[in-house]
Design goal:
The chain has 447 residues and is an alpha/beta fold. Helices cover 49% and strands 16% of the residues. Strands 9-8-7-6-10-11-12 form a 7-stranded mixed sheet, with helices on both faces. It has a 5-stranded mixed sheet with strand order 1-2-4-3-5. Strand 7 and strand 8 form a beta hairpin. The protein is globular, with a radius of gyration of 21 Å. The structure holds (2Z)-2-iminopentanedioic acid. (2Z)-2-iminopentanedioic acid binds next to strand 3, helix 5 and helix 15.
Length: 447
């Protein structure tokens, strides 16, 4: 394989799909050498097949808003790869959703899911529906209209969607309800992220954030350090960011900086105790502003800025959205002297910024497809519970999540070591995830 040639071909076929092309390039660059040591993969054209989704569905979603006006959105599902299990991945409802974004997410999901060790292929879907400012009834009508078309593409052994940005417990409830109504069966494993009373798993909402902190713990352990006392600067305080704040507080670490869409907060005492509840309230009232936190607790708020570059922390964790950290921020991060850069949101760093940070000798960089895998990991455990028709306790789920995150760190570190790359967690995760999917494709023949 020659990455530049392959990318030139993909750019020709998919012009302007920048996020997708970015995600593919990032993975291919780090597996190029490994791949070239496997002539059997080369012969079976594994990479050429793996970079294209198996299929993409696009459909019209028409619904009626509260004013009685007819609205039309677009719905999508990118079924990327099912070599190791049924398609699995979230649904994103956001006004910027387009095929390039969902292809990048589906591609990343394929390797992430492989890292969890559970049998799950990769997929992603969603809609350009903007949930902001919509009433509860409008959200329900939209979800029902979406599922009326979408149901024919999913199923417990085919494709199991879940939540992502803009799709939380409420939306999954309406989506699953409509699925059950149409198929006329309680097929729990056709969606994950469900409420506990509808076959959901305990800890699924917290799993991504908790898992990220468990992963961070392994990185620190590698350096002989503990989580206790660690200070974190992060972006995002959505479902995932909040989970990080909560688990960090539980383990005696603290989030002292967090950035939202309107600027960043500096709380030297950390987001702990009842402040965690306040964040939930604040977000429910207005997800676009974190300033009310500063007003309530009398701490610093810096409008219009991100906290990348602050010096009095030990770890940076971008947990907002894709391409949040660009070159300009990466330079500030490197100059701050902070050692750990732990990606949490899917692809939060542009490729040039990521390569720049990875090249810093004093830094350890961990990739989102490993760090945030606990979310889909617990989705996989939800599918297991649904198949068994059993409900696990919080202790059981947490123990499995913990084991999974430890293992993801371990296999990533070992894969990098095996190929002479030292403690390179980014390349290691790509190599470990890729090898599993590639081997499964190879074993199953050419199609
Ligand atoms: O990015 C992700 O891993 C998710 N949105 C979770 C997907 C899932 O199926 O739980």
């Amino acid at each position: 394989m020659n990455v530049n040639n392959l990318m030139a071909e993909l750019e020709r076929k998919h012009p302007g799909e920048n996020e997708y092309l970015q995600a593919v390039r990032e993975v291919l660059e780090s597996i190029e050498e490994v791949y070239n040591q496997h002539p059997e993969f080369e012969k079976a054209k594994i990479v050429e097949r793996l970079v294209e989704p198996d299929r993409i569905f696009t459909f019209r979603v028409t619904w009626v808003d509260d004013k009685g006006e007819v609205q039309t959105n677009l719905g999508y599902r990118v079924q990327f790869n099912s070599a190791i299990g049924p398609y699995k991945g979230g649904l994103r409802f956001h006004k910027a959703v387009n095929p390039s974004m969902l292809k990048f997410l589906g591609f990343e999901q394929t390797f992430k899911n492989a890292l969890t060790t559970l049998p799950m292929g990769g997929a992603k879907g969603g809609s350009d529906f903007n949930p902001k400012g919509k009433s509860d009834r409008e959200v329900m009508r939209f979800c029902q209209a979406f599922m009326t078309e979408f149901h024919r593409h999913i199923g417990q052994d085919i494709d199991c969607p879940a939540g992502d940005v803009g799709v939380g417990g409420r939306e999954v409830g309406y989506l699953y309800g409509q699925y059950r109504r149409i198929v006329g069966a309680a097929e729990f494993g056709a969606m994950s992220g469900k409420a506990i009373c509808t076959g959901g798993s305990i800890l699924r909402p917290e799993a991504t954030g908790f898992g990220a902190v468990y992963y961070l713990r392994e990185v620190l352990k590698h350096d002989g350090k503990e989580v206790k006392g660690i200070r974190v600067a992060m972006s995002g305080y959505g479902n995932v960011g909040w989970g990080i704040m909560k688990k960090a507080a539980e383990l005696g670490a603290k989030v002292t900086y967090f950035a939202g869409p309107d600027g960043y907060i500096h709380d030297p005492d950390g987001v702990v105790g009842e402040k965690l509840d306040f964040i939930l309230e604040m977000r429910a009232k207005d997800p676009m502003h974190c300033k009310p936190y500063a007003d309530k607790y009398g701490v610093e708020f810096v409008p219009g800025e991100k906290c990348w570059g602050v010096k009095d922390v030990d770890v940076y964790m971008p947990a907002a959205t894709q391409n949040d950290v660009r070159m300009e921020s990466a330079e500030k991060i490197a100059a701050s002297g902070v050692k750990y850069y732990i990606e949490v949101a899917n692809m939060p760093t542009t490729n040039d910024a990521l390569n720049y940070l990875r090249a810093q000798k004093h830094m350890v960089v961990a990739p989102s497809k490993a760090v945030n895998a606990g979310g889909v990991g617990v989705s996989g455990l939800e599918m297991s519970q649904n198949s068994e028709r059993l409900v696990w306790t919080a202790e059981e789920v947490d123990a499995q999540l913990h084991k999974m995150m430890k293992n993801i760190h371990k296999v990533s570190a070992e894969a990098a070591e095996e190929y002479g790359l030292g403690y390179d967690l980014v390349a290691g995760a790509n190599i470990a995830g890729f090898k599993k999917v590639a081997q499964a494709m190879y074993e199953q023949g050419v199609f």
